[in-house]
Amino acid sequence: MQIGFPKCLVRFFENGQDLLDALHEEPFGTWPQLILLDLNMPVMDGFATLAGIKEHDTLKIIPTVMLTTSDNPGDVERCYHIGCNAYMTKPSSFDQLSGMFSLLQRYWVQVSRLPSTPVS
């Protein structure tokens, strides 16, 4: 089954710590054009993972979108305070989720202009 990002390499990580470890590997390879995070990840939650990305001078320019089930206004505010670029609440149906991925792909991959590699 395919959803969103049809022309992009998509890598999945089991938890935030695995993502941060991969981002710090030398060489990482192709820098991500976009990072999608969930608040409720095991080992390291989305808040801590987002902070780890945004506190790092090289990684902080990678657009990071929180895609989660929480619609708690406090979670939204906290994520933006840490530095997320967008906060989206996951819809309940697959069709709506697929549409959301299409919107994400169009904006972050096709429309927005991003640096090819993070600047150190």
TrEMBL record:
<dbReference type="Pfam" id="PF00072">
    <property type="entry name" value="Response_reg"/>
</dbReference>
<keyword id="KW-0597">Phosphoprotein</keyword>
<dbReference type="InterPro" id="IPR052893">
    <property type="entry name" value="TCS_response_regulator"/>
</dbReference>
<dbReference type="InterPro" id="IPR001789">
    <property type="entry name" value="Sig_transdc_resp-reg_receiver"/>
</dbReference>
<dbReference type="InterPro" id="IPR011006">
    <property type="entry name" value="CheY-like_superfamily"/>
</dbReference>
<feature type="domain" description="Response regulatory">
    <location>
        <begin position="1"/>
        <end position="105"/>
    </location>
</feature>
<protein>
    <recommendedName>
        <fullName>Response regulatory domain-containing protein</fullName>
    </recommendedName>
</protein>
<feature type="modified residue" description="4-aspartylphosphate">
    <location>
        <position position="38"/>
    </location>
</feature>
